[in-house]
Design a protein that fits this description.
Blueprint: E1 19-23, E2 40-44, E3 49-53, E4 59-63, E5 74-77, E6 85-86, H1 89-100, E7 105-110, H2 120-128, H3 131-139, H4 142-149, E8 152-156, H5 167-177, E9 181-184, E10 188-192, H6 199-204, H7 206-214
Parallel strand pairs: 5-7
Antiparallel strand pairs: 1-4, 2-3, 3-6, 4-7, 8-10, 9-10
Length: 215
């Protein structure tokens, strides 16, 4: 899946070890309708790993390195699974933990998936035998899955910098310039937008925006 993801960090103080889940959108995601079926996480015997299915509310799970290990870099991890399930452990959290141990702040993305029943991995195996039916099953969700990974922005602010710089305000400022929305807590916020060509210009102004507040 083509992912254009950008993480913006204002790391002006030490980063504490933490793990939290940040919703990508407030309320029902764009292009989706409210769904009544729950997200499911279970061990797949077929894939021999923990998987997640029926994702309707995309999110990012944050993994932060210990202060003495952080190196100022970040990565977004997008587990695979044929748009029907996410190999959440082997291709998600295990990778995140590996990188976090090496000082990288990581975000595991759970993007929208096709609706499945009791065992999404078995349905995937069965459907894949009939390529036309498989394409029909995942066709509608692919644009939504891709949208969940486009121009995703994350801002984190910690320590004394919080007195002057608020992550939610920074994200709202950037997202507005790329035709989207952003916001969140003072220390961690997320946002995004669809106007990719404007992203470079929006980011060019981040340093000045921050410097105005910390000067």
């Amino acid at each position: 899946m083509a992912i254009r993801t950008l993480c913006v960090f204002v790391l002006l103080a030490s980063c504490a070890v933490a793990q939290e889940v940040v919703p990508l959108y407030p309320g029902t995601p764009p292009g989706s309708t409210p769904e009544s079926y729950p997200e499911k996480e279970y061990f797949s015997k077929l894939w021999n790993t923990e998987v997640v299915s029926n994702v309707t509310k995309p999110s990012l799970t944050v993994f932060k390195p210990a202060p003495e290990k952080k190196n100022g870099t970040a990565a977004v991890i997008c587990p695979g699974g044929g748009f029907m399930a996410l190999s959440i452990t082997s291709e998600g959290t295990d990778v995140a933990k590996y990188l976090t141990e090496r000082g990288v702040t990581t975000f595991v993305l759970k993007y929208r998936l096709a609706h499945s029943g009791e065992d999404a991995t078995q349905e995937f195996a069965d459907l894949f035998k009939d390529r036309e039916k498989f394409r029909e099953t995942i066709g509608k969700v692919i644009p939504l899955s891709v949208a969940d990974g486009r121009a995703t922005l994350i801002a984190g602010v910690n320590g004394k910098a919080l007195d002057r710089v608020k992550a939610g305000e920074l994200l709202a400022h950037i997202a507005a310039q790329i035709g989207g929305k952003g916001g969140g807590r003072a220390d961690l916020a997320q946002g995004g937008g669809a106007d990719g060509p404007m992203l470079v210009a929006a980011l060019d102004g981040v340093r000045g925006w921050v410097e105005e507040r910390v000067a």
